[in-house]
Amino acid sequence: MGLRFNKKRVIGIIATITGAAILITRLPSWIWMMALGGFLIWFGWMLFTESR
Fold first, then answer.
1. What is the C-alpha to C-alpha distance for residues 5 and 37, in angstroms, rounded to an integer?
2. Which residues neighbour 24 within 8 Å (Cβ) at sequence distance 6 or greater?
3. 3-class secondary structure per residue, 1-52
4. CA–CA gap between residue 35 and residue 33 (Å, rounded)
């Protein structure tokens, strides 16, 4: 039952969350719409090709 406190992992998670928050608040909304649209097209295509 060795639940160890890993400093590097915690710092990495905090840095990732902080970076994502900065990007979300600073980038224009049209960039997010393009990124989300591209992701949905990719995700839909992956689901379509995997279902055959």
1. 38
2. 32
3. CCCCCCHHHHHHHHHHHHHHHHHHHHCCHHHHHHHHHHHHHHHHHHHHHHCC
4. 5
CB-based burial label for 37 (10 Å; 0-12, 13-18, 19+): exposed
Tens-place pLDDT, residues 26-44: 888 888 888 889 999 999 9
Return the structure tokens found at 50: 């995997």
pTM, entire model? 0.51
Question: What's the rounded Cα separation, in Å, for the pair 36 and 8?
Answer: 30
What residue has token string 């990124």?
Answer: 35
Classify 44 as helix, strand or coil: helix
